[in-house]
Amino acid sequence: MDTTLQTADSEALTPDSADPLKTSAAHARSAVLEELIRQAPGQFRVLTGDRPTGRLHLGHYFGTLHNRIRLQNLGVETFVIIADYQVLTDRDIADNLTEYVEELVLDYLAIGVDPARSTIFTHSAVPALNQLLLPFLSLVSVSELNRNPTVKDEIAHSRQSAVSGLMFTYPVHQAADILFCKANLVPVGQDQLPHLEITRTVARRFNDRYGDGGAVFPRPDALLSSAPLLLGMDGTKMSKSRGNAITLAADADETARLIKGAKTDSERFITYDPATRPEVSSLLLMAALCQDRAPEQIAAEIGSAGAAALKRTVTEAVNECLAPIRARRTEYARDRTYLRGVLREGNERANAVADATLAEVRAAMNSHY
Ligand code: TRP
User: Fold this and answer.
1) Do 179 and 45 share a structural domain?
2) Is residue 223 very low, low, confident or very high in pLDDT (cuts 50, 70, 90)?
3) pLDDT tens-digit series, residues 147-198
4) pLDDT tops 60 at residue 357
5) Is 71 in the pocket of ligand 1 (CB under 6 A)?
6) With the C-alpha atoms ordered 286, 288, 294, 300, is the resulting torsion angle positive or negative?
7) Residue 48 Cβ < 6 Å to ligand 1
8) Quick one: 16 and 142 in the same domain?
9) Is the CB of 50 inside a 6 Å radius of any atom of ligand 1?
10) Where are the annotated coiled coils located (predicted)?
11) Ligand 1 contact via 83 beta carbon (within 6 Å)
């Protein structure tokens, strides 16, 4: 894969002086990237992934999953990492790991990740990837790690009494996740932008220090999806751990029950106004995303029929949108042997790529004995 073109482009469009953490800059860059992807999908390689901590939900689906499938179907080579080591950043033990990993593979297959075109793999099964962490750690300063706002936020919400070294350094680990396969495009949510910045820094410094005038690693770009954040049924951020999410795997009845219990407000007339009516607006948005329509239009159709009618509309929209995904999920769930085969093959492919990159890194660092 030729990454020179993208590397040159990203240097030109996002110089170090610009603040890439600024969401507006990242959105502008994403629009430029969308055009480049349409013109030449073969110039890109995507890496993206999730922690295996539970089932994926609608927030994930409209936030990033949808985008991954779109890229895969546009012809962009895709790597999907199941970040099992990363589960240990904010807890002592990774519970139900085997089960959660299989659930994740099921979710991926159900939404349309195609193992013939995309590589699904588990982080801990790729030793050469993990070995990149050592040289990469030498390229970032402790104060740079200290400044990472996403890590600060995770520390604030951590279930551990003390901050582990892994919590502190996992963005560098994530840089290895991205760079081992020389991905140049990472479709993520906004909270991941600081990690992408560390990845870009690591790539640039590695190339400067060891590249001998060339580039061993591309400087990957974040691709932000335009979908706004969905709230959970209790009005706070939709999250696996808060029990407020509509999972892809939930059945139609459970979905109806969850939406029926959703928080709304005391105003009967339904309007779309995210600033003053966050809960009602998030429900409208959910229906709108499912139906690919404008939330204002759905609000206008419901009007004075009130919250009960809104919830009926949302339930129908969600269940209809997820029906084919759920049907496929049920099919795949019957064949655990196939599931494990997908993972085994994905791990094999990821290992081959990681071994080649590690060999290159060793040669660049003069540690090829
Ligand atoms: N940090 C991501 C999450 O919490 C998971 C992840 C691990 C990831 N490595 C990655 C995402 C590399 C994108 C790229 O969900």
Assistant:
1) yes
2) very high
3) 999 999 989 888 888 999 999 999 999 999 999 999 999 998 888 899 999 9
4) yes
5) no
6) negative
7) yes
8) yes
9) yes
10) none
11) yes
Distance 173 CA to ligand 1 centre (A): 10
With a 6 A CB cut-off, is 188 part of the ligand 1 pocket?
yes
Q: Rounded distance, CA 195 to CA 208, Å?
A: 20
Q: Does 234 reside within a domain?
A: no
Confirm whether 74 is domain-assigned: yes
With respect to residue 241, please indicate whether it lies within any of the assigned structural domains. Answer: no
**Whole domain around residue 283: which residue ranges?**
252-333
What's the 260 CA to ligand 1 centre distance in angstroms? 32
- CA pair distance 229, 190, nearest whole angstrom: 10
Question: What is the Å distance from ligand 1's center to 51 Cα?
Answer: 7
Extract the tokens encoding 74: 């546009």
* Backbone dihedral angles phi then psi of residue 77, each to the nearest 5 degrees: -65, 130
147 and 256 part of one domain: no
Alpha carbon 368 to its chain's center: 34
Distance (Å) from CA 240 to ligand 1 centroid:
15
C-alpha span between 127 and 80 (Å, rounded):
16
Please give the average per-residue pLDDT across 80-85, as a whole number: 97
82 lies in the same domain as 195: yes
Same domain membership, residue 340 and residue 323 = no
SS3 content of the chain, % helix, strand, coil (to 5): 60, 10, 30
Residue nearest to atom 14 of ligand 1 (CA): 48
Range 278-286 average pLDDT: 96
Beta bridge partners of 50: 82
Note the pLDDT of residue 15: 38
Question: What spacing in Å lies between the alpha carbon of 5 and ligand 1's midpoint?
Answer: 25
Number of domains composing the chain: 2
- Asked if residue 1 belongs to a domain, the reply is no
Phi, psi of 368 (to 5 degrees): -100, 95
CATH code assigned at 304? 1.10.240.10
pLDDT for res 19: 54
> 122 forms bridges with which residues in the sheet?
82
Q: How far is the CA of 250 from the centre of ligand 1 (A)?
A: 24
**Does residue 81 sit in the same domain as residue 142?**
yes
Structure-token pair, residue 251 = 């059945």
Q: Give dist(CA 369, CA 362) in Å, integer.
A: 9
Q: 61 and 191: one domain?
A: yes
81 lines ligand 1 (CB under 6 A): yes
Residues 165 and 302 in one domain: no
